[in-house]
Design goal:
globular; eight-stranded mixed beta sheet; Jelly Rolls; single chain; alpha+beta
């Protein structure tokens, strides 16, 4: 078997009909999991990333930094403890844009069953999955590989089951049979947690607890049920390229495999799995309405040969159905000395711009909305 360096592999990707291979991959409706099931031993060229991106991905994470962990125990009945938590949330949201939460109220059994459900969906027969395959993201349920497959220079080693769980509630029969019930249960609990998190974030901004909820930041919920198969050449591709999230807030459930990294002080830091914890990160829209007080940080997932890795990213925002509601910097957070930094936008406009320009290079869509 021909063994290529990263530079040689990338050069080789420039000498083929990329669009044809992307189309063939897309029309197989089998995703990355289908490639692995077919027994491939080399990463197909459409997945080979630029050497510069891969070089940084191979670098060791700085062990001196650790994503903050926030304990939500007793925040309802103990006012002093709540004040401490609000301060911790404020600090993490301003500096990291990331934190992990424990004692969040969702039982470990529910978390484990959710991960198992996602695994069952992606590991079932290809014919069953094909019934849900779609690139129409106005639908409530869609299975696909790489939402930006036709736009990026390198595809990611990842398959996704996309489900819009709120504001319009789904029934179990709308969802895949192998995971529908647990998705409904998990989503209900995540929505409750989201309400708590938005209260804490509101207080961290010096606002009334219901401020962000009243702005409908917690109204919509989208689940991205991700599956990262074992990769034969993880040094040549990424699980998920560097990016920020386009929503208000993301709550992430990840399994024990790891691979998630956040950019902090110009260094990629591992977000190591903590049993029973959930990861929370600030999205672009929350950075926009907080007028840059909170930070939507770049993050990524490195490929691995130990997989599969399973995660569930819970996006809080409402893009479907579209709403004319405008979002701009919250008026209580602006002043003559700190004027608004962004123009107003609808969620649909922002998400559409984000998706149209999502090339996997870490470029933030927020720049296009700055005043």
């Amino acid at each position: 078997m021909e063994v290529l360096s990263r530079d040689e592999a990338h050069e080789k990707t420039q000498k083929y009909d990329r669009m044809r291979e992307i189309k063939d991959f897309d029309e197989s409706m089998a995703g990355v999991k289908g490639l692995v099931d077919a027994g491939i031993t080399e990463v197909p060229r459409i997945f080979v990333d630029h050497p510069e991106n891969l070089q940084s991905a191979l670098a060791s994470s700085n062990g001196h930094f650790h994503v903050p962990i926030v304990d939500l125990a007793d925040i309802v009945k103990d006012p002093s403890r709540r004040k401490e938590v609000v301060n911790e949330v404020r600090s993490a949201s301003k500096t990291w844009g990331f934190f992990q939460v424990v004692n969040h109220g969702i039982p470990t059994t529910v978390l484990e069953e959710m991960l198992d459900g996602v695994r069952r969906f992606h590991e079932q027969g290809a014919e069953e999955k094909r019934r849900f395959y779609s690139r129409d993201f106005t639908t409530s349920v869609a299975y696909h590989s790489n939402f930006n497959l036709y736009k990026t220079e390198a595809a990611n080693w990842r398959d996704t089951l996309f489900c819009v769980m709120a504001p319009n509630a789904l029934e179990a029969e709308d969802l895949p049979a192998v995971c529908g019930d647990i998705m409904l249960e998990f989503s209900k609990r995540v929505m409750n947690l989201g309400t708590t998190l938005f209260e804490l974030l509101s207080e961290a901004l010096g606002l009334k607890p219901n401020h962000l909820k009243d702005m409908e930041c917690a109204k919509g919920l989208v689940l991205l049920n991700q599956y990262y198969p074992k990769c034969p050449q993880p040094e040549l591709t990424m699980g998920t390229s560097r990016h920020t999230d386009s929503d208000f807030l993301t709550v992430l459930l990840q399994d024990h495999v790891g691979g998630l990294q956040v950019l902090y002080q110009n260094q990629w830091i591992d977000v190591s799995p903590v049993p029973g914890a959930l990861i929370v990160n600030i999205g672009d829209l929350l950075q926009l309405i907080s007028n840059d007080i909170f930070k939507s940080s770049e993050h990524r997932v490195v490929a691995n040969n130990m997989g599969p890795r399973v995660s569930v990213a819970c996006f809080f925002y409402t893009a479907t159905p579209p709403s004319p509601k405008l979002y701009g910097p919250i008026k209580e957070l602006i002043s003559e000395g700190d004027p608004p930094k962004y123009r107003e936008t609808t969620i649909m406009e922002y998400v559409s711009h984000f998706s149209a320009n999502a090339k996997g290079d870490g470029t933030s869509a927020l720049q296009q909305f700055k005043l």
